[in-house]
Amino acid sequence: MDLPADAHVHSEWSWDTGGPVPENAGRMAAMCLQAQRIGLPAIAFTEHLDFDGRVRFDPQDLLPQQQKYLDDDGHLILPPFDVDGYLDSIDRCRHRFPDLRILTGVEFGQPHLFEEEARRLLDLGALDRVNGSLHTLRDGDDRAEPGTLFRTWAPDDVITAYLLEVPRMVDGSETIAVVTHLDYAARSWPADTAGPFDPRRYEELFRAAMRAVAASGRALEMNTRRLWPWLPQWWAEEGGRAITFGSDAHDALAPETIARNFPEAMAMAEHFGFRPGRRPEDFWTR
Ligand SMILES: [Zn+2]
Ligand SMILES: [Zn+2]
């Protein structure tokens, strides 16, 4: 079976890869080359679109190329997304790789809070894909990522707050088509002190989040950074109709991460009744 589009990829136009600095130049093209090499028919560059402004971060959670965004009191100051630079880069890659379907997109962080800001910056409707992501939660006057919150909150509280926020994100946004990595908070789960992450402990919260996504008619992403068989299973059981596949490759982590684990993810999706569409970027549906 042909590979589906990798519908969640970051290039040098995402701030967390270090941004469009000279060291990152040509990364998008390198990722296109890798996609072509592995026979991937389509790739969506869904760059980070964040408007949180200041996000509290523990410096040890940051990669070297992200440290430069940190201010003196431990907040990350996020630079704006360079829409024109990004679109120029897409254009150049489309000319250079005519056989690869190169799709435009963003990974819109906290879309329920920042739709107005997004509208002022760009026309989301003109993009091929708008992924909606929950990366930060409110913590007092700050916003912070789960990885930072796990240092001060009880692990249960982080996962619970994250999953309770997903329905609010879904209901409060008009522009997103896909909800990404529902397991985002689990990525930074403190296994050293809390033991391995057990999704069944939060099954009802995951299912409630999925019901909200399904009721809104959106697709759920199978984020293939880590595969969970329960994700497509619970999604199907809760009325989910559509799935996308996203590696969440960041160029800083090497282009080899493009479409990682896709064959296994496709087998899982198929097992739970999801079938490909006509084009590689179409959602798989059931
Ligand atoms: Zn994300
Ligand atoms: Zn991402």
TrEMBL record:
Q: Which InterPro entries match?
A: PHP_dom, Pol/histidinol_Pase-like
**Matching Pfam families, A to Z?**
PHP (PF02811)
What Gene3D superfamilies does this protein's entry cite? Metal-dependent hydrolases
Q: Which residues form the PHP domain?
A: 6-224
Which SUPFAM superfamilies does this one have?
Answer: PHP domain-like
Name it.
PHP domain-containing protein
Organism, scientific name: Amnibacterium soli
